[in-house]
Every structure is written in structure tokens, then in C-alpha cells.
Amino acid sequence: MDCLTFNAVLRIEAPTLDGFYRVVAVPPATDIVWLAYIGVRDEGAVANAPAVVGTTTPVDRYTLRSLAEAALLTIVDLDDPGALGREEALEGKGSSLWEHHQAVMVPFLDPVQLQEALVTTGGIGPLVQTALRDSDTSRATVYRLWRLLCARGFTGLSLMPSYDQCGAPGVLRPVEGGRQKPGVKSPHERVGAEDPFPQRGATQEDRIKIAAHVGRQWKAGMTTAGLYDEVIRAIYVRRYVQTPRGLEAVMPPPGTFPNKRQFRHIVETEFKALERAIRRTTTGHWNRNRRGLRGHSYDGVAGPGHAYAIDSTIGDVHLRSAVNRAWVVGRPIVYVIVDVWSTAVVGFYVCLRPPSWRAAKIALYSTFADPAAIAELWGYQYRPVLEPAPTAPFTLWCDRGEYLSAGARETLLRLGFNSAFNPAYRPDLKGLVEVLHRIAKDAQFSDFIPGAIDARRLELDLKTDARESALTLREYVQYLYMVFTQYNAHANREDRMTSEMVAAGVRATPAGLWRFGHEMGFGFRRHTPHDQLAAGLLEQTTLTARRTGNFLESLQYDGDLAVEEQWSAQARNFGVLERTAYRFPGYAGKLWVPGATGLHEFHLRPNGRTLPQITFDEWRDTLGVALLQRSQREYERFCDAVRNLDARDDLVKNAIAETTAAEARSSGPVLTTLQARSLETSAVGTALLAQPVVAGPAAHTGILAAAETSDYDALMDDLLAGVLPKGAA
Predict the structure, then answer these.
(1) Given this model, what pLDDT does residue 138 score?
(2) Are 541 and 593 in contact (CB under 8 A)?
(3) Under CATH, what is the fold of the domain 298-520?
(4) Cβ-proximal residues to 531 (8 Å cutoff; 6+ apart), any chain
């Protein structure tokens, strides 16, 4: 029979053996089985079963077999669910007492010794004598432990002290039936004086009411003192007085309601520590920062390339303008895109604009496009750390921010990308990206980057002056590229290594996991033509074709498409043309313009107004500074124009006055224009004009003095004879 097994529990419904029994001995050479009584089967049943737990009874095997065939005997399981929990909670004195109990009951835990004692003597007397001889314990203790073995089972766990079932700390002791208040005595009682307001004990009714009100009124941020005031006022303030100011509460006498210590004890016993921690804060804060972790971000992700997570943050660094390093342009916005399965940084983007879908699209383009081309735009040396190069993922994990917009939905649908949105205010669900933001910020602060900010220690007044900054936007991008490249190549990912990966020699780094996943065939790659990426993700703008060239924000661009379609000739004859163009905001030296055969590249003219590596935001800053200087330049032009007008007016007035005076003094012949011009170009006229000119009335003193001599007339005759035609006199 299966029931004839040592330590098995039987439920018997026979009149003489009604109750629960445990098999304590099964002698192999006899027909007798020894059973130990455990307890009654039914409180209302009338039977002749033993009344003391642990009483042993010999029963014939055939009797047990007949009871089993009559369905009056059943094998049951009798578990002690708190045994393992008590084992973990035991420490100090409890642990040493448990070890002592096991040492005392060693003979009883041996089935062979127990069987021999029952067969030879019909009881456990020899084992009791052995236990008393080998230990310093009492007979009552041995029998008490024997009853524990019979009731709980013949294992060491049955001998564990049950402090959880006694009146030890943590056991509720409400004041009921005239019982005195538990706890320490009051100061008056300690000195033997009468307490004028003795504190009553907390009853079960108090516990029920307080627990109910606390459950309704406990809000996030409420202290225990504030909660105590609210609950006590709601429960124990029962009288009010009508006053001119309104109803005023009449406080009950002190000691007639639970004090703060009793209130705190009730709260701590009725609400578990974890529940109290949840109630002290908001649901969002708990879910983000305090909740229990239930898995990893890569759980459920098939492999590299299947899921990317994207997030943006404000860079903890101040930057300078590449146009003029004396200009501080402020803190940038940094987008980071991470492969969830391999934890590799597959792309990033830095800009000076606030977070928006326009900026997020450029970040996606920086991830999906050829990494060598992106490196050329930013001006850093490309290192092929991630092989193969990242492409568009199967799913993009986003926040409910700029990605939850009509533009984002339209773009992702057109390019065939899937997106998954986190719940609102739950950045912890993509904590990997947040960690990489922190890694980049910690690296730049630990590297003493000029202008870097330790955002997590601002409360210690470690504030950075923006004037200490030194890096430009492109230099900061190059710095982040080196940080993320180092991370991809050498970050420790030994916790992700399986035995197969170790045997295959996979490098325990993000780049190693990325390469392993693609080589094994469970990575995801999606080919998207560059024209579709540029048209779908780059910033769309308008290129204006004029007769003098092709312009975008005052910058002139040249391209083969404009020459083939003769944009300049069309603009000269029919007016300006406007063509759609796509630009990368971090590089002003290149545009993409759609044509009949796809996208065509346009490049900044060599003698353009700015350098190609200048960003469009910095170019706008330049135009803004020029606009600020325009009013000053206009004022300076106006002042100079007024002074110039005054000088010209004075010059004309002096000339008129001198001409009038010269005509009044002239008494010689009147020359024609041709004669006067000939006189000025002749040698004689040149000699006369070469004399010093004196301003004022004496301006022609030298010429007038020469006219008074006798030689003057002869000179003029000769001159006129040579200048005037014959017969003109």
C-alpha cells in the first residue's frame, strides 16, 4: 500500500480511529504499522480517538487495507506554509535555539532508531532517555518537540521556534476585556505620580477606523504628522461651537484618543512597508524611479536592428559660434538613437533648435544614411566600429512628444517605418537612452570640457559660466562621436554573454553583440534609397533661382541641374524660379534638389558669403548680428551724408562768388569755350595756371600783375594769332 510510508499523513474515518494520523514506523517483518495521532477530523464527530497529539497506536496492515478499500482512509498532504519563511527570519537567539532542538531530537529523526524503540518497547521511552542523556534539556521539552514532529513532520523544519505565533514584537495587542494598555509607562507613572490625563490604549475599533481613514486620506507628499491631524480630526472631533467666525471644533480631552505613537503603530502594522512607500509619492514618480524592476529593455527584442530607442536632452555644455568664437550660442539639444538589443549607439544628432519633429527627422537621417557621408558633413574621421552599418529598424521606440504628431505619422508611413510610443511621463521604459545621455554628460565633465555643466550637482553651486566655453557645434559633435565610438567598441557587456557567444569568441561589447547578431542571421536590416531618406527626413526648404544665381537664405549655390535646365535664363526672361530643396542643418555647403532623374547635389559657391562647414543656425546668427548693426551703420551714413551736403554747398557758393568777382574784374577780350580750353591746354596757359593759387580776393594776383606789363599785350597778340583762325580778328 502507498499509505504505508514513513512520515505519510492519513485521514481515517473509522469509529475507533477517526482523525488525522502520521505514519511513524513501518516494520518490514511484522503486520503492524505504528501511527501517531495528529488531530481530529471533524469537531462535531464523536469518536474514540486519542485526545493527545503524539500518542502512538499500533494498527494491523489488513485493517488499513480494508479501510482504504472502503474509502474510509485517504492519504493527504499536511504542509506548514510558514516554515521556510520562519527559517529566513530566524537570527541570533532563534537560530541557536533551532540548532539546539535539532541536536536534542537526533534519535527521533532517525527512522531506524524510532522503529526499533516502538517494536521493542511499544513506546518512545528509550529515545527519550537517550535525548536526556546526550543533552541538557528537560523531559517536558523532549515530549513537546516529539509532538511537533508528529504534527508537522519528521524534518528539521518542524523543530523551528514559532516566534511568529507568540506575543513577541509585531503581534497585535489591542486593549479589550479590561486589559491594560501595552507599552512603556508614562513619565508620571515612572515617578509614581498621578497622571492627570492618562493615555488610553488603542482598541480594535480604533484600529479599524484609523486604517479606513488613512486609506482614504493619505496623499502623496503628506507627512505622518499631517496625516495624524487629518485622521484624528475626522474621527474623534465630535463637538463644534457656533462662533461669529463660524463653527469651531472642540477638541476632546488629551488621552481620550490615540496619540502619535499609537497612530504610527497602527499605520505601520495595517499597511506594509512597500505600500507605505507607494502612498508617500505619486504614481508617476513611483513608476519612474521607485518601482520594482521586472525585466530588461531587450526582453522580447529578436536581435540587433529590430528596435531602436530615440530620445533628446539638453547638452550640459555651453558652445561658441563658428563664425565668431566671441559669440556664445548657448546649450545644444542632443538626440541619441540606441539599438535596444545590443545597446550600441547607432546614431546621434546635435542642433541648436528646441526639440521638434524637424530636428528628430535629421537625427533619424544621421542614423539611417551612409555613416561615411555623415562623417564628411560633420568633418570627423569615420571609424567602422559597427559592422554592418546601421540601417532603418523594424520598430522605433519614441516618447509621446514630437514623435506623436501628424508630420511624424506621415513621414514614418511614407518611409515604411514602425513606431511604438511609451506611456506619458515614463522615460524609465527606455532607460538605456537615458543612461547613454548620462554617460556622455559625465564624460564631458570628467574630461574638463570648457563650459561643461554637472547638472546633477547644481545644488552644490557648481555652476559654470558660459564665458568659459570653447567648443563650437561641430567640435562638440566630433567630441561626442569619439565618446560614443569608445562606448560601442569597449563598453563591458559580459552580463549578456551566453555559453554559445563565449565559445564563438564574441567580443563582450555593444559592437561585438551587434556584429554577432547580424552574422548569425537574426539581425534586421532595411535598405532605403538615399533619395527617399533625404526627401523624407531632411529639412525641406526653397531654393530661389534668380538671374544672378541660385540663392538660399542669401547663400548662393551652383549645381549641374541649374545649368542643364537654364534656370538663370528662365529667371532673366520670366522672373524668379522657386525649387524645392533639402538641406542638412549642420552643414551649409551642400543641398539636394529633386529633378527628373532623382536628387541632384548643389554646392556652395567657392566665393560664397560663408564657409561650407558653418551651420545654417550659425549663418542665421550672422545675419542677425548684421541686422543689429544695420541701424548704427544707417545712422553713421546719415551723419556723413549731412556733413557731405554742407561741404558741397559751401564749395558751390564759393565757386559762384569767385566767378562773379572774376567777371566783374575782367576787361580783356571775351573768349569762346574753344578758345578758353585751348588756352588752358597750351604751354602758356599751363605756365599761367601753374602759378600759386591763393584763396580769397588775392586768388588771381599773379595773373593781374602780369597783365599790367607791356609784355602782356604782345604775349596775347601772339597767343591769339596762333589760336584764332585767320581773318577771325
Answers:
(1) 92
(2) no
(3) Nucleotidyltransferase; domain 5 (3.30.420)
(4) 594, 598, 599
